[in-house]
Fold this sequence. Notes:
By secondary structure, the protein is mainly beta. The protein contains no helices and ten strands.
Amino acid sequence: xxxxxxxxxxxxxxxxxxxxxxxxxxxxxxxxxxxxxxxxxxxxxxxxxxxxxxxxxxxxxxxxxxxxxxxxxxxxxxxxxxxxxxxxxxxxxxxxxxxxxxxxxx
Length: 106
């Protein structure tokens, strides 16, 4: 991925039924402009509704989240971080993923 690129998808496979949860991701930019963007189901994050195969990876419907990168989201090169959060129907927060990183080129 390149800086200022948009229109591609971030997909994270969680390997479990996500229907009982309200999902969100935290997208964090690299130093020196550390900015967190919380993306929720009401602001563009979706739970995948179709099985998708990309190379050796298969994403099973209802078990992955995806977000279409918008213009301005990826504004600096470097190592970005992303983490998936979920909230139960009772409002309890659950973290579904460790901190994941991906590199953005200039």
